[in-house]
Design a protein that fits this description.
Keywords: Cytochrome c-type biogenesis, Membrane, Transmembrane, Transmembrane helix. It comes from Solanum pennellii (Tomato). It is found in: Membrane. It is a multi-pass membrane protein. This protein is of the alpha+beta class and 561 residues long. The strands form 7 sheets. Strands 9, 11, 15, 16, 17, 23 and 24 form a 7-stranded antiparallel beta sheet that branches. It is elongated and about 120 Å long.
Length: 561
C-alpha cells in the first residue's frame, strides 16, 4: 500500500495561514481530496491533488502536491447535496464503469464506431429483409435433393432469371439453405446488430429512466408535456392520491417525484433478447439436429439410429439412437364417402436388452416422443396382399404404387401369374387397391372380374382359379427427428409475446412543488400521450382542497382528513 508524501510547500502554508495537521493517508494513484477547515471562525476550503510514487524503483514525479486556498490562487468546488437517485438503490447515485454495463465484456472491447455501425437502424432493417429473402428462396428451392435434381431443375443453358443455375445453388449451399454459411452469417450479423442496439441505446435509456430527481423550480415543472397548478392543495395529499393509483412516490421537503410503468422501459430489451433466442434456437436446429424418414410394413422393426442423419456440424447422437422400434399394427379411418380421414400406427420401443420401454399409438398431429427423438405419422402405403390360390398359401404379393395423371390420389397394384412363368408373354390376374378397404380384380385379359374386401374370406373364381384375399398389409410412413433448438425457439416466442405486451405500458413521470398554498404539477409519458392529460386531470380532481376553519379558535385543517 502506498503512502502520500507532502512537499515542504504544505508546511509553509501551515505556518503562514493555519495550524493545519496533515497525516499520511492510503490513496489510490492520481487521487484528489476536497476538504474544509474551520477553526475559530476562520474557514477555508482546499483541494489536494497528488501523484503517488511506488516503492518499486519508479522515478519521483516532477508534479508537486498543491493546496488551493480560496481568495488566493484557486476556488474550491462547492459542496452540493445530491438531488438524483436511482430507483431501487435508496436514492444513492450509481457508480458505473467507464465502459458501461458489466456483462457486455465483448461489446466493451469493440470500438464505438463499430458499435455505431452495427446499431444503425437502416442496417438492421436491411438485415431483416435479407433474412426474409433467403428464407423465401429456401422455400422456392427444394431442399436436400441430390445434385442431379438441381442439374435438371436449374440448367446452365436456360437458367431461371437468366443467371441462377445449379452452380449458384450448390456453391452457396442453397440446397441446404438454413444451414448454409450465407444464411447463418446474415443471421449472425442481425444478432450482432440487436446486441449493439441493446447496448448502445436501450440499456442507457433504462438507466436514465431509473434515475429520479426533484425539480426545485416551478418554471421547470411548467415546461413539462403536461402542467397544472392546484391553488389550495398539499403536495402530501397529492402523493397519497398518486400512490393509490400505482405510482412510486418520493418526497423531499416541498418537492415530490413519482413514476410508474418502469417495466415498459425494460420491455424493448426483452424483445431483443427474445429475438436473439429465436435466432439462436433456429440456428441450433439447423446445425445440431437429426432427421430421417422411413416407410415400415406392419410387423417389422427398425433401429432409430439407422434412419436419422445429421443436419450439421453440431449434431450429436444420444443413447436413444440405439432404440429399436416395432410397427405392431397400422390402421386407417375413413369418411362416409370412403376417403381416408386418419391413419394410426401402434409402435413399441425396445432398449438394447430387448425390454419394451414405451408403447403408443400415434397418428397425424399426435407424435411419439422418447429420449429427445420425435416420431411423426406422415404417410402411408400398401406393402403387400396376402392371397390364397386354390386353397394354397397364403402368398404375399408385393404392392407397387402406380403413377396417376394428376391429383393426390393413391393407387397400388400387384400381379398373380397364372401361366407358365418361363413363357415370354406371362399372363395373370391383376389386383388394384386404393386403400385397405377393398381390392379390385381383373382377369388375364384385363377384364373386370370383381371386388373383394380383405379378411372377408369370400372367394372369387377367375379363369378357373379360386382366389381369396386374406389380408392387405399396410405400411406406415414415419418421420423421425431430434431438434435441440425447439425449446429455445418456444421460449423465445413466449418471451417475445410477453415483452411485446409489456412494451405497451406507459412510463409516466410526475414532478410537484409546494409553492405556498399552491402545488405546481408537471409530468410526461412515453406512450398514450393523447390520453395523458385526461388521466392527470382525473387524478388531480381527487386531491382535497385546503379549507380554513370559520372559527378563529380552531386551527386550520385539511378537508377530507
Amino acid at each position: 500500500m502506498e503512502t502520500l508524501k507532502i512537499s515542504s510547500r504544505i508546511s509553509l502554508v501551515q505556518n503562514q495561514i493555519l495550524p493545519l495537521n496533515i497525516k499520511p493517508y492510503s490513496l489510490i494513484h492520481n487521487s484528489r481530496i476536497l476538504g474544509v477547515y474551520n477553526n475559530k471562525g476562520r474557514t477555508f476550503s482546499f483541494t489536494l491533488t497528488c501523484k503517488l510514487n511506488t516503492v518499486k524503483g519508479n522515478k519521483p514525479s516532477k508534479e508537486k502536491s498543491r493546496i488551493s486556498v480560496p481568495g488566493s490562487d484557486g476556488v474550491a468546488p462547492p459542496v452540493v447535496e445530491s438531488e438524483e437517485g436511482s430507483v431501487g438503490n435508496g436514492g444513492r447515485k450509481v457508480v458505473e464503469t467507464k465502459n458501461g454495463v458489466v456483462g457486455f465484456g465483448l461489446l466493451k472491447k469493440l470500438p464505438r464506431k463499430v458499435l455505431g455501425i452495427l446499431s444503425n437502424l437502416p442496417l438492421a432493417i436491411a438485415e431483416m429483409f435479407a433474412v426474409a429473402a433467403l428464407m423465401a428462396l429456401g422455400t422456392f428451392i427444394d431442399q436436400g435433393e441430390a445434385p442431379d435434381y438441381y442439374f435438371q431443375k436449374f440448367p446452365e443453358d436456360h437458367p431461371p432469371l437468366g443467371f441462377f443455375s445449379w452452380r449458384w445453388v450448390l456453391t452457396l449451399g442453397f440446397d441446404h439453405m438454413f444451414s448454409s454459411p450465407v444464411f447463418l452469417g446474415t443471421l449472425a450479423l442481425l444478432g450482432a446488430s440487436l446486441m449493439a442496439c441493446t447496448y448502445t441505446t436501450q440499456i442507457p435509456l433504462v438507466k436514465v429512466a431509473r434515475r429520479w430527481s426533484f425539480l426545485q423550480s416551478a418554471e421547470t415543472i411548467r415546461k413539462q408535456e403536461y402542467a397544472d397548478t392546484l391553488p389550495r392543495a398539499s403536495v402530501k395529499d397529492l402523493g397519497v392520491i398518486l400512490m393509490g393509483d400505482g405510482y412510486e412516490v418520493f418526497s423531499k421537503g416541498p418537492s415530490l417525484y413519482a413514476f410508474k410503468g418502469l417495466a415498459g422501459r425494460f420491455a424493448p430489451i426483452g424483445v431483443h433478447i427474445s429475438l436473439l433466442l429465436i435466432m439462436a434456437g433456429g440456428t441450433l436446429s439447423a446445425v445440431g439436429s437429426f432427421r430421417g424418414a422411413v416407410t415400415v410394413p406392419q410387423g417389422l422393426n427398425f433401429v432409430a439410429g439407422d434412419v436419422l442423419a445429421p443436419s450439421g456440424f453440431l449434431s450429436t447422437p444420444s443413447d436413444a439412437f440405439s432404440t429399436e422400434i416395432r410397427v405392431n399394427r397400422f390402421s386407417m379411418d375413413y369418411y362416409d364417402s370412403g376417403e381416408v380421414s386418419q391413419f394410426h400406427t401402434d409402435l413399441s420401443l425396445f432398449d438394447l436388452k430387448g425390454k419394451e420401454v414405451m408403447r403408443k399409438t400415434i397418428s397425424v398431429n399426435d407424435p411419439l416422443r422418447y429420449g429427445g427423438i420425435t416420431i411423426y405419422q406422415t404417410d402411408w402405403s400398401i406393402s403387400a396382399l396376402q392371397v390364397l390360390k386354390d386353397d394354397e398359401g397364403p402368398f404375399n404379393l408385393a404392392m407397387a404404387p402406380l403413377q396417376l395423371n394428376g391429383g393426390d390420389k393413391k393407387l397400388f397394384g400387384t400381379f398373380l401369374p397364372v401361366a407358365d412363368d418361363n413363357s415370354p408373354n406371362v399372363k395373370g390376374i391383376s389386383m388394384l387397391a386404393r386403400d385397405l378397404q377393398s381390392v379390385i380384380l381383373y382377369d388375364k385379359e384385363g377384364k373386370f372380374a370383381g371386388v373383394r374386401r380383405p379378411n372377408s374370406n369370400l372367394p372369387i373364381e377367375i379363369d378357373g382359379i379360386k382366389i381369396v384375399i386374406a389380408d392387405a398389409i399396410g405400411s406406415s410412413g414415419l418421420d423421425l427427428k431430434t431438434d435441440p433448438g425447439v425449446p429455445v425457439v418456444y421460449a423465445g416466442f413466449g418471451a417475445l409475446m410477453l415483452t411485446t405486451c409489456i412494451s405497451y405500458l406507459s412510463h409516466t413521470q410526475l414532478w410537484a412543488l409546494q409553492d405556498g398554498t399552491s402545488v405546481v404539477v408537471g409530468g410526461k409519458t412515453n406512450r398514450a400521450k393523447g390520453e395523458f392529460p385526461d388521466t392527470m386531470n382525473r387524478l388531480l380532481d381527487q386531491v382535497p382542497e385546503l379549507v380554513e376553519s370559520s372559527s378563529p379558535e380552531e386551527p386550520n385543517i385539511l378537508s377530507g382528513l
